[in-house]
C-alpha cells in the first residue's frame, strides 16, 4: 500500500499541511509539521509567477527564490525528509514550468528518487495531462488533480480519469488563503465527488483555524492548511518551527477528532 | 476540415485543442477551465453568426475609424536610399493603425472581445496592461458598453505611463497598481488571472495580446487580422501587387500576427517580426524568441525568458508594451516552421528610428513600432528600389514623449 493510501486509510481524517520549499528553515519546519501531527506534507515548489496563490504564498515564493532556492534544493529537501520520515507522504505542489523545464521525464525520475509520493501541478489541467502526467504515473508518482466549484458534472469524469493518490477539492473559486466556503456547500461537493471516485477527497483553500479545519474534517477525508502555516514561517523565520508545531498540533487535534465528536 | 481544403496552409492553426504545433494549449487552473471551454464554444458560435460580424464591422468602421490608411512614406524612403547602393532602397509603406480611436491597434481586439463578453452575459470587465494602450482600449469599450472595468497595471508601468493611467480613469476604469514581482506587465497579468479565478461567474477577461490560454491567441489574432486584410487589399490596389516584406514589432505579438496572418499563404511575401533587444541581446532585453526557450506561462506554451530552473526572467525594453518575457504561441510556431523571420532592435535603435520618423514624415510613432521602423531602416537599403515593404505603425507616440525626453536627457 502506498504511503498516501496508508495516510488516508487511518481511522481519522487526514491533516495535509503546506509550506513553501526554501522559505525559512524548511527542514526543521517539515519536522515540526510531522511532530505536530500532519498526516501528509505538501511542499510548494517556488515559482516566480504563482498565479493561483494569494499574498501569503506569493511572498513565500519570493522569499524562497530570493534566498536562491533551486529545483535541486527542492529535491534535496524532499530526499532528506524521506530519510528522516520514511512513512510520511510528501507531495510537491507547484506550477508547470519548473516541472517540465528539464523534461517531464527528468522531473518524474527525480520525484521517484527523492521519495516524492505525488505531484499537484496547478496549471496543468486534464487537457494538458500529456505534458507531465504520464511521466509521473509511469514513475509511480501520483498525479493529484484539483476539482473546484466550477468543475461541473459533465466535466468531472475527465478530471477523475487521470487523478491518482487523492483528489484535492478547492472549496472556493479563487486564490489560496483568502476566503472560506460554507461547510454545507463543501459537504454537498464532497459527496458529489465521492460518488464518482474511490479516491480520498481532501479539501483546501482558505482553511486557517482548528475550528474551520475540524468542521471540514467532519465531511471530508482530509483538510489542507497552507497560508496560515506559511504566514507563521514568514513572521518567525528561524523561530518558526516551534510556532508551526503548535498550530499543527491544534489543527491535528481538531481534524483527527472531528468524526468522533460528530458521532 | 480545413486541412483537406488547404493541405499546405499556414493559416489553419491552432488544432482543436488550441495547439500551434507544440505551442499554445490551455495551461490554466481547474477553476478557469470550464470558463475557457465556454468561451471557446461561444467564440465558435459568434464566428458563424452574421449579426456578430455585422456589429463588429460596424463598430470598427464608425467607432474605431477603420479602414486605417495605407501610407507611402516617401521622405523616409528617400532618406534611406541615401545610404544605399545604386538601384537599392525599397519603398516603405505604413499601415497607419496609430490613427485608430485610442491611438493603437489594441482597440480592434477589444471591440471583438467586449461583444463576446456581452454575448456570454458577463457584466464586469478586467484587463492587464503594460504601456497602457490595451488598458485604455479596454476602458474605452467598457465605457462604450456601460460595463465596470478594472485594469491591472504594474506599479512601475503606472509610474512611467502616467498619461494613460489618467486616460483610463477618465474613462471610468479602476486602475490597480500591481506591486508584486518586478511590477510590470507579467505581474499585471498574474494579478488579472487571480481576479478572474475569484470572479469567474460574472467577469470577462479581455486579454490584450495574442497569448494566454486557448482560445485567446486565436480570437485575438482573428480580431486583429483586420489589419492584414485591409493592408492586402490596399497594397494590391495601390501598388498592383503583393508586398515583398511585412514588418511589425513584437511584444506578445498581436499587431504582428494581425498584419501577417492574412498573408501567410502568399509564399512570395516575406515577414519580419521585431523583438525588443533592450540594452542588447547579451544584456537585459525582452526578446523571447532570440534569447528564450519553450516553456509554460500565463496559460500557454511558448518561448519564454527563463533561467536554468524554469524561473521566469524579467524582460527589459524602453517600450513598456514590449517589456514581456513571453510571446504569443503562434509566433513561436511560425519561427519554428521558418515561415516568419524574427529579429530584434535595441532601445537605442528604436529611439533613433523614433526620431527619424518624426523628422522625415511628421509622424510621432509609439516606441513599440519604433522597433519595427528600426528594422526597416536596416533592411530597406539591402532591397531593390522597386521592392515594397509594409510596416505596421501600430501606435502613436503621445504616451511616450516623457520616456523619450528622459532617454534623450531633455527635461520637460
Automatic annotation (TrEMBL), chain A:
PROSITE patterns for the chain: TRP_SYNTHASE_ALPHA
Family (UniProt): Belongs to the TrpA family.
Role according to the record: The alpha subunit is responsible for the aldol cleavage of indoleglycerol phosphate to indole and glyceraldehyde 3-phosphate.
Reaction(s) this enzyme catalyzes, per UniProt: (1S,2R)-1-C-(indol-3-yl)glycerol 3-phosphate + L-serine = D-glyceraldehyde 3-phosphate + L-tryptophan + H2O
CDD domains: Tryptophan_synthase_alpha
Gene that this sequence comes from: trpA
NCBIfam families linked: trpA (TIGR00262)
Keyword Amino-acid biosynthesis assigned: yes
Pfam families, A to Z: Trp_syntA (PF00290)
One Gene Ontology MF term: tryptophan synthase activity
Gene3D superfamilies tied to this protein: Aldolase class I (3.20.20.70)
Protein name as annotated: Tryptophan synthase alpha chain
Protein keywords: Amino-acid biosynthesis, Aromatic amino acid biosynthesis, Lyase, Tryptophan biosynthesis
Residues at the active site: 42, 53
One GO cellular component term: cytosol
EC number in record: 4.2.1.20
Organism: Croceicoccus pelagius
Pathway assignment: Amino-acid biosynthesis; L-tryptophan biosynthesis; L-tryptophan from chorismate: step 5/5
Subunit structure: Tetramer of two alpha and two beta chains.
TrEMBL record, chain B:
Cofactor: pyridoxal 5'-phosphate
Keywords, ordered alphabetically: Amino-acid biosynthesis, Aromatic amino acid biosynthesis, Lyase, Pyridoxal phosphate, Tryptophan biosynthesis
Pathway, per record: Amino-acid biosynthesis; L-tryptophan biosynthesis; L-tryptophan from chorismate: step 5/5
One term of GO molecular function: tryptophan synthase activity
EC number: 4.2.1.20
The reaction(s) this protein catalyses: (1S,2R)-1-C-(indol-3-yl)glycerol 3-phosphate + L-serine = D-glyceraldehyde 3-phosphate + L-tryptophan + H2O
Tryptophan synthase beta chain-like PALP domain ranges (all copies): 66-395
PTM annotation (N6-(pyridoxal phosphate)lysine): residues: 106
Family affiliation: Belongs to the TrpB family.
Its job: The beta subunit is responsible for the synthesis of L-tryptophan from indole and L-serine.
NCBIfam families: trpB (TIGR00263)
Name of the protein: Tryptophan synthase beta chain
Organism (species): Croceicoccus pelagius
Taxonomic lineage of the native organism: Bacteria, Pseudomonadati, Pseudomonadota, Alphaproteobacteria, Sphingomonadales
Gene name per UniProt: trpB
Amino acid at each position: 500500500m502506498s504511503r498516501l493510501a496508508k495516510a488516508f486509510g487511518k481511522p481519522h481524517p487526514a491533516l495535509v499541511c503546506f509550506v513553501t520549499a526554501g522559505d525559512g528553515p524548511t527542514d526543521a519546519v517539515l519536522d515540526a509539521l510531522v511532530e505536530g501531527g500532519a498526516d501528509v506534507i505538501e511542499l510548494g515548489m517556488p515559482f516566480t509567477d504563482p498565479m493561483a496563490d494569494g499574498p501569503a504564498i506569493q511572498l513565500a515564493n519570493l522569499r524562497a527564490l530570493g534566498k536562491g532556492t533551486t529545483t535541486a534544493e527542492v529535491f534535496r529537501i524532499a530526499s532528506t525528509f524521506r530519510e528522516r520520515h520514511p512513512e510520511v507522504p510528501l507531495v510537491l505542489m507547484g506550477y508547470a514550468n519548473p516541472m517540465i523545464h528539464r523534461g517531464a521525464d527528468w522531473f518524474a525520475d527525480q520525484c521517484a528518487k527523492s521519495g516524492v509520493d505525488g505531484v499537484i501541478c496547478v496549471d496543468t489541467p486534464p487537457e494538458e495531462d500529456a505534458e507531465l502526467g504520464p511521466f509521473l504515473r509511469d514513475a509511480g508518482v501520483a498525479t493529484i488533480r484539483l476539482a473546484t466549484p466550477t468543475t461541473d458534472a459533465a466535466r468531472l469524469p475527465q478530471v477523475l480519469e487521470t487523478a491518482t493518490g487523492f483528489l484535492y477539492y478547492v472549496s472556493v473559486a479563487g486564490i489560496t488563503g483568502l476566503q472560506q466556503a460554507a461547510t454545507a456547500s463543501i459537504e454537498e461537493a464532497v459527496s458529489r465527488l465521492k460518488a464518482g471516485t474511490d479516491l480520498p477527497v481532501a479539501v483546501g483553500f482558505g482553511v486557517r483555524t482548528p475550528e474551520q479545519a475540524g468542521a471540514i474534517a467532519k465531511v471530508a477525508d482530509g483538510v489542507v492548511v497552507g497560508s496560515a502555516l506559511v504566514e507563521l514561517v514568514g513572521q518567525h523565520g528561524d523561530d518558526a518551527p516551534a510556532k508551526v508545531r503548535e498550530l499543527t498540533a491544534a489543527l491535528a487535534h481538531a481534524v483527527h477528532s472531528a468524526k468522533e465528536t460528530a458521532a | 476540415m480545413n486541412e483537406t481544403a488547404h493541405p499546405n496552409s499556414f493559416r489553419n492553426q491552432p488544432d482543436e485543442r488550441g495547439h500551434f504545433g507544440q505551442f499554445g494549449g490551455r495551461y490554466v487552473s481547474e477553476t478557469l477551465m470550464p470558463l475557457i471551454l465556454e468561451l471557446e464554444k461561444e467564440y465558435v458560435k459568434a464566428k458563424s453568426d452574421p449579426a456578430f460580424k455585422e456589429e463588429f464591422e460596424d463598430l470598427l468602421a464608425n467607432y474605431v475609424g477603420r479602414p486605417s490608411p495605407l501610407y507611402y512614406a516617401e521622405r523616409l524612403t528617400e532618406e534611406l536610399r541615401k545610404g544605399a547602393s545604386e538601384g537599392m532602397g525599397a519603398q516603405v509603406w505604413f499601415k497607419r493603425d496609430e490613427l485608430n480611436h485610442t491611438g493603437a491597434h489594441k482597440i480592434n481586439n477589444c471591440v471583438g472581445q467586449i461583444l463576446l463578453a456581452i454575448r456570454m452575459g458577463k457584466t464586469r470587465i478586467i484587463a492587464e496592461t503594460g504601456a497602457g494602450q490595451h488598458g485604455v482600449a479596454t476602458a474605452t469599450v467598457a465605457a462604450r458598453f456601460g460595463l465596470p472595468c478594472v485594469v491591472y497595471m504594474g506599479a512601475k508601468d503606472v509610474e512611467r505611463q502616467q498619461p494613460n493611467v489618467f486616460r483610463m480613469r477618465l474613462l471610468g476604469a479602476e486602475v490597480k497598481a500591481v506591486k508584486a514581482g518586478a511590477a510590470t506587465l507579467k505581474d499585471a497579468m498574474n494579478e488579472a488571472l487571480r481576479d478572474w479565478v475569484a470572479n469567474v461567474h460574472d467577469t470577462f477577461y479581455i486579454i490584450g495580446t495574442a497569448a494566454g490560454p486557448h482560445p485567446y491567441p486565436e480570437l485575438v489574432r482573428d480580431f486583429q487580422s483586420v489589419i492584414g486584410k485591409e493592408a492586402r487589399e490596399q497594397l494590391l490596389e495601390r501598388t498592383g501587387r503583393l508586398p515583398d516584406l511585412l514588418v511589425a514589432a513584437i511584444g506578445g505579438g498581436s499587431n504582428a500576427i494581425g498584419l501577417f496572418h492574412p498573408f501567410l499563404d502568399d509564399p512570395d511575401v516575406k515577414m519580419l517580426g521585431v523583438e525588443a533587444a533592450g540594452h542588447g541581446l547579451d544584456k537585459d532585453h525582452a526578446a523571447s524568441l532570440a534569447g528564450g526557450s519553450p516553456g509554460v506561462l500565463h496559460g500557454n506554451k511558448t518561448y519564454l525568458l527563463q533561467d536554468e530552473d524554469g524561473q521566469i526572467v524579467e524582460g527589459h525594453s524602453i517600450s513598456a508594451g514590449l517589456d514581456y518575457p513571453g510571446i504569443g504561441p503562434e509566433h513561436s510556431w511560425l519561427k519554428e516552421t521558418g515561415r516568419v523571420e524574427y529579429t530584434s532592435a535595441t532601445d537605442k535603435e528604436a529611439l533613433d528610428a523614433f526620431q527619424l520618423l518624426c523628422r522625415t514624415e511628421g509622424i510621432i510613432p509609439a516606441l513599440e513600432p519604433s522597433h519595427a521602423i528600426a528594422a526597416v531602416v536596416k533592411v530597406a537599403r539591402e532591397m531593390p528600389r522597386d521592392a515594397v515593404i509594409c510596416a505596421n505603425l501600430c501606435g502613436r507616440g503621445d504616451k511616450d514623449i516623457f520616456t523619450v525626453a528622459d532617454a534623450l536627457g531633455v527635461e520637460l
